[in-house]
Amino acid sequence: MSVIIFLENTGGKLKKSAFETLTYGYKTAQELQTNCIAVTIGDCFSQQETVAKYGAEKLICIDNSLLDCDNQSTSEAISQVYKKENGVALVLSNSSYGKPIGPKIAVQCQASFISNVIEVPSSLRVRKKSFSGKAFEYAQSQLENVVYAISPNSFYVEENPGSISSETFTASNIGESSVKLINLEKSVGKVSLAEAEVVISAGRGLKGPENWHMVEELADLLNAGTACSKPVSDIGWRPHSEHVGQTGVAIAPNLYIAIGISGAIQHLAGVNSSKVMVAVNIDPEAPFFKAADYGIVGDAFEVVPRIIDSLKKFKENN
Amino acid sequence: MNILVCISNVPDTTSAINFSSEGTSFDSNGIQFIINPYDEFGLTKAIKLREKHGGSVTVAHVGLVTSDPTLRKALAIGADKVIRVDLEPKDSFSVAKELANVIEQNSFDLIICGRESIDYNGGAVPAMLSEFLSLPFINACTFFECTDDSVKMEREIEDGKETIESKLPLIIAGQKGLVEESDLLIPNMRGIMTARSKPLEVCQAITNDTQTHSVNFEKPAPKQDCKMIEAGNEEELINLLHHEAKVI
User: Fold this and answer.
1) Identical fold at A2-169 and A198-317?
2) Using alpha carbons only, what angle is made at residue B56 by residues B52 and B58, rounded to the nearest 5 degrees?
3) Residues B62, B63, B67, B68: what is their CA dihedral angle, to the nearest 10 degrees?
4) Is B54 on the interface with A (CB under 8 A)?
5) Mean pLDDT of residues grouped by 10 in chain A (318 residues)?
6) Which residues in chain A have Cβ-Cβ distances shorter than 8 Å to B37?
7) What is the ipTM of this complex?
8) Domain locations along chain A
9) What is the pTM of this model?
10) What domains, with CATH codes, occur in chain B?
């Protein structure tokens, strides 16, 4: 019996979420008094020592050639590892990669599926985010085998060094992919919202897309991702992928700075998992000030450039 | 093209969420229910595809009679027919099982779901459906175009966008981008009138087996008061973020 941890990698390098899944998997294995095994797709052997630091006893690299978008073959390959290693729980990230495969693995392995988990399960009961960030839920699995999809940026990272072995696994009977990748467009030079420690977001208060340079400059200084409110993406000032909120991307950065966003309940739902929130708004009655940790009432066109200047000064001295 | 759109009945996005006093169930008192926003993008897309390619748009839903006003709205917007499985939805597994049964009893070229429902956010039903039905599945779909023998789709990923080709029949889990916010349809009087005579078929559930159970809910702890900083004193903000909040 083992806890199986699925690690995401890009070109053989572990993604940030991998450290959260490793820690979560290790803690879950402790809870179940068993060991944990990491599995990933592609040649990831160079990461073996890193994986060992987080307590996995074995690293399995699946060597089938699998497309990222082929959730069928990917889930089947991982399920084969799960069955071979006598898995009792599978841990993966609830990311764009993990989302489509988690439920499929659960069905393939006769396991239950629980997503958005934020704490380690105890007696098959686990705390998760629910109602788009407006509430938390304790979910109970009625099956012994469970697939846990952990909410990105919501679980701590902790080292638990141990010894590790590694092996290659070739999944059998993987059919031809039913989907074909035609094009992959990577946003270059941008910090991905899901992985960003800091997110700078702006709303209609910025008056037009031509004013976003302030947001981008601030984001550059803090190595932050950029985001926007729903109205801004609806009128096309910014791409959909930047819309954070209840019906957009849900984020959980360490620092969220909202500029000219009033703070409607739908917006707050998607961002209130942020550890620290700063609101800048010209309207002292903006609801965001009730949710934020720090607030400045003022004109964004005056306040933001001054934040940028202060930050530059701060960076020179630190 | 015969399209099935799977719909959830969820609290309006502007709703404040409350639970029963023991926290064991959602308190629907005073809550306005709506078509799950991700599903609404899918329904609108389905109607546009029907305009272009012909065929029909069927809506499937797992839920009790209390969902009927939401389902009538789907008919008023333009769906041809609704199939409601008369079962209180309890977990993704049982809902997906019921929807798979509806799909097996009929014949659809395309099955559109929302990426997730905005209440329980499981995000598992479409993927489970694809397992039960052995159909290809694309998650977080932001573009869908159909030619004679293939479909082209775009999928949003964390650091970019994938363009994918596949064949029908197929399951997509959609979101904004399938259609734009401005494309969403508001039922007009004629739509509302004709919706009354469109079929809303109720069928019995095939199973009541669940795999997970919601034990209880809690709301986030109230935030501490916001610390206000005078405009003009932005250095203080940086100072606080560094020394007090320790986030920069």
Assistant:
1) yes
2) 130
3) 70
4) no
5) 97 95 98 98 96 98 96 98 98 97 98 98 97 94 98 94 97 95 88 90 97 97 96 94 91 97 94 96 97 97 98 94
6) 247
7) 0.96
8) 2-169, 198-317
9) 0.96
10) 2-221 (3.40.50.620)
